[in-house]
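Journal club side-thread
Mid-discussion, someone asked how the predicted structure for our own chain would compare to the paper's figures. Pasting it here so we can look after the session.
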Amino acid sequence: MSHKSYPSSDRLSTFITGHGLDVTNYEGLLAGAIDAARRSFENDTDHRPFLAATSATERAFDPPTNGPLLFCGSLAVAPTSVTYQPYGSSAETLTLRQDYTLEPSNALSMGEPITRLRFRRRWTTPLAPEQLQSVLITGRWGYATEVPDDAYQAILERGAANVWTQLTQSATGGLLGWKHGERSVDYGDNRWTALNEKWTGKGCNYDKAVSIYRRMGF
């Protein structure tokens, strides 16, 4: 399962209340909590952004001089266009499989992004000044066009962990229990710490997802 957008603050609210925590009076924190969780996930996986924009944009690169490979970041779909245009020259449109190929091979069919272009031509070093930033790639930059379910769940759990202290403090008043005469309430430390451990402890869903989607190699 995948999602067309990141988790919203409303979705975070539903997730937290489903675990028995009351978000009343804390709704204002949820938007910041889920946004911080999203930014943490993108930073920890070396993807900026993880979810590709809906429209293509252009980025400029120096031609590769140490071999045929241009490491370009992450493209969630094949580039709309690749052109070569040294300063002061007309743009030359490059053709897939004729002038360059996409790598890793078959990445998109396996649900992974394109991270490299392999050119058939060669450029030598040092580049002439007019050749700098002369390779122009237009595409949807990011790891994926939709958020995979495991990444979505990881961001939700990190968002909940971001407000865990405030919510449990509100529920318990900082106490583990109280007793007055024959009446007593035991809030139970494990009730609260077990959730936070599930969301942030060793082997949690967040860490698992980060290990899967962290960009390796550059």
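Post-session note: The mean pLDDT is 89.
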